[in-house]
Amino acid sequence: MTINTLAKGGWYREQMTCFRKMEKVIVAMQDPDMGMKMRNQRLLITVIPHAMTGRDVIDWLIQKYNICEEEALHVGGMLVRYGYIYPLKEPRSLVLRADETPYRFQTPYFWTSTRWPASELDYAIYLAKKNIRKQGELMEYEKERYSLLHKRINHTWDFVVMQAREQLRASKQRRKADRIVLECQEQAYWLINRPPPGAHNVLDMGLEKPNNFSLRVTLNSDYYKREIESCRRALGRNRVKSSICLEGFVKFSEQYQNHDPIMQGCLPSNPWISDDTAHWTMNSEIVPVPTRLRVERWSFSFMELLNDPIGRREFMTYLEKEFSAENLCFWQACEDIRHGESSKIIQKVEDVYKNFLAPGAARWVNIDSKTMDKTLEGIKHPHRFVMDDAQLHIYFLMKKDSYPRYLKSDLYKNMLAKAIVPQETKKSVFPFMRRQRHSSPSPAQAVTQVTEEDGRAMGAGKAGTNSAAGSHV
Amino acid sequence: MCQHVESTEINCLLCKNVRLLICLCSPFRCRSLPAQRKIYMRSPPIPEMATQEVQLNETLAHLKTESETLKSKLEEERAKLHDVELHQVAEKVEGLGQFVMKTRRTLKGHGNKVLCMDWCKDKRRIVSSSQDGKVIVWDAFTTNKEHAVTMPCTWVMACAYAPSGCAVACGGLDNKCSVYPLSLDKNENLAAKKKSVAMHTNYLSACSFTNSDMQILTSSGDGTCALWDVESGQLLQSFHGHAADVLCLDLAPSETGNTFVSGGCDKKANVWDMRSGQCIQSFETHESDINSVRYYPSGDAFASGSDDATCRLYDLRADREVAIYSKESIIFGVSSVDFSLSGRLLFGGYNDYTINVWDVLKGTRVSILFGHENRVSTLRVSPDGTAFCTGSWDHTLRIWA
């Protein structure tokens, strides 16, 4: 046996946590004071004590957790699916019904968590019991599994049959009501731990995360030394008061609320709801006239302006007027180095040096001497991040100086004035007049047309638009 | 001793050739760790080695204690500047009204559990991957399948769309991350142009392109994250610090674009500097595996979702956890989280097949969405915030708006 078959790693931990929580709910349900009221239920001619109806379960959950009916039905439904509550009338239907259907609590002996995973031996004994008790009682899939098990654990088969006979003998000595209850409970346990083919397997845990905490990374002295080092660094860092940070979230959410389609809807309509792609067409990467909301967003932060291709273009136009366009060009070139192909780095760094940093360069950028020296030194051994300090310097220069002035400029104000505010589309009056869902050209297609068009780096590899084909508005 | 004792020889990952006596009732634990030495060895240890071992044990225990002391000191320092709770600050904010979101599209076509999905920048295309090795590119708006690739491995747990929209990356049990350029020629076999980029020593749990098609960030079951150059397949930087599988990662939307956060089975969420490979901040408040991490839109905070059935919000400037999103009636773990565009709403996909919508500021649950018939494994909000997509073990993907 290898470690992986024995190691109860990820999913064991995960599942046991859920089991424990569900068990707490179950225990609370059976609390003598705050739990549910139970009553006797008639099952054919026998009376089963301590049973409850589906309705009882749901009402109790609604009251205890202050949730709605739908959610209570869902939570109760999970309890049934995991076998903590089983239905008396239709045992194979593991569903919680919000009516008078009777249910019962599963005994802790048969909780999935008690013996998990369920063993093959126990399953063989169960099937053997069923087979002996009443010939032909096994279902098709059970017969198949029975014979498979017979082959697999053949060496212990005598033990299996012996155990099955013993248990049947012991159960005959019980009262009929108890016997029926025990049979029901056992059946419920196996319906969950060995579900019929096609049925939902609630215990399907998916991929075992084969790692178990300390196995993968040795908790040796190196590990602890690293932990200590990072703790020391963390202790030394500057922190900001909560009141200031949290205020920031409130402000951010307020500022962006109108721009959040899920919160406020979007104009003219949300394409997913109305099947109309006008919203996307109007907000494509490049449009003749951008929307109002979009232009407004440029004023939220410098990053918003730069991230929008139209915004960036407008800003470039403004900088050209101010004769400081080389700053933005330099920044773009640096971005290209940082995110571009490794093989082109050396060439690109050389180009940047020639165009922007060399004394007497055509578009010389104004960097402080300390950063300039450091950058020039780094250029001797060019790497991806060699321009970082210079790029950051120019970025903050633009952000603190040019950007605020741009927002106050006529260029921006005009943009805002002529921006489109789309009309909200009224919902279709006739539901059967479904709008056509038009497909759009894939970005992969668009790029073969655009490619070398835009020499100025607009961020590496940005594709074209999807405005062309879909215009049916 | 219980009846389930089985004496067997096992190859321990740490020290080979050790016979271990195991009781099957309790979780398996390799007993060769120095701190828990209870090994049954074939031959007694050599005397000199024994004294060395004892010294090593003492140093290790000493280091462990020092580490733990520093950690509690750190928590104390963090708590000092915590002068107000988020929901208190949010008291003045208007509450959210009735919330109605429905499934607007259902994407059927995967033959097995959907494990991961990602949006294309064009706001309507998505890529999804599943347990049977299939990776499908859809136009979610029309629900048409545009491309399909069959990976050579099962359990494709990670997939990502390239920023240009011209390629997808995916990986899983093959321990690799491969990039497939999306060809428009329907006859062309996409698998032929496949490019193997990342190589880990265990399963790939998540991958993401950085700002361009040229670099990919990956996280793996081997406990590390790594940054790769797509063109050459070269490893640019590796990130060590997690003590167990790393399950998720997210890139920061910051101005300087240099950090990312990762979450793992060691219950830790680490923030890394992509340039230096160093872990700059670490948070350890979850009680179980962290399945998903996602930055708040401003980049000043991130949310995490865990098997402990809670989502938490961590502020990077305050350097602490600032909110917990949980409810007593929510029992099952969170598999994935994402924010709405304004950051006001946090969507969580849960293992009990539901989606819970949280008011980030007030800390309350706004809505619970039903629809999937098995656990929700992945959830992402679209790039323009008009909808979000969920993928589930019920083989379908749903678009909600």
From TrEMBL, chain A:
Q: Which Gene3D superfamilies match?
A: 1.10.1240.60, Regulator of G-protein Signalling 4, domain 2, Transducin (heterotrimeric G protein), gamma chain, Winged helix-like DNA-binding domain superfamily/Winged helix DNA-binding domain
Residues forming the RGS domain are: 301-416
Q: Which SMART domains match?
A: DEP, G_gamma, GGL, RGS
Query: What InterPro entries does the record point to?
Result: DEP_dom (IPR000591), G-protein_gamma-like_dom (IPR015898), GGL_sf (IPR036284), RGS (IPR016137), RGS6/7/9/11 (IPR047016), RGS6/7/9/11_DHEX_sf (IPR047017), RGS_DHEX (IPR040759), RGS_sf (IPR036305)
Q: Which Pfam families match?
A: DEP, G-gamma, RGS, RGS_DHEX
Q: Does the keyword Repeat apply?
A: no
Listed under GO biological process in this entry are: G protein-coupled receptor signaling pathway; intracellular signal transduction; negative regulation of signal transduction; regulation of G protein-coupled receptor signaling pathway
Q: Which gene encodes it?
A: RGS11
Polar residues composition bias: residue spans? 439-450, 464-473
Task: Tell me which CDD domains the record gives.
Answer: DEP_RGS7-like, GGL
Domain DEP: residue ranges = 32-107
Q: Which GO terms describe its molecular function?
A: GTPase activator activity
Protein name from the UniProt record: Regulator of G-protein signaling 11
Please tell me the species this chain comes from: Lates calcarifer
May I have one GO cellular component term? cytoplasm
Supply the alphabetized keyword list.
Signal transduction inhibitor
Which superkingdom heads the taxonomic lineage of this protein's source?
A: Eukaryota
Q: Does the keyword Chaperone apply?
A: no
* Disordered: annotated segments: 434-473
From TrEMBL, chain B:
Q: Name one Pfam family in it.
A: WD40_Gbeta
The answer, when asked if Repeat is one of the entry's keywords, is: yes
Q: Does the keyword ATP-binding apply?
A: no
InterPro entries this protein is in? Answer: G-protein_beta_1-5, WD40/YVTN_repeat-like_dom_sf, WD40_G-protein_beta-like, WD40_PAC1, WD40_repeat_CS, WD40_repeat_dom_sf, WD40_rpt
Any one biological process term the GO annotation gives: signal transduction
Q: Which SUPFAM superfamilies does the entry link to?
A: WD40 repeat-like
Q: Which sections of the protein are WD repeats?
A: 107-148, 197-238, 239-282, 283-324, 334-368, 369-401
Keywords, A to Z?
A: Repeat, Transducer, WD repeat
Subunit structure as annotated in this protein's UniProt entry: May interact with RGS9; this interaction stabilizes both proteins and increases RGS9 GTPase-activating protein (GAP) activity, hence accelerating the deactivation of D(2) dopamine receptor-mediated signaling.
Q: What family does the entry list? A: Belongs to the WD repeat G protein beta family.
Protein name (Swiss-Prot/TrEMBL): Guanine nucleotide binding protein (G protein), beta 5a
The species this protein was found in = Lates calcarifer
Question: Which gene name does the record give?
Answer: GNB5
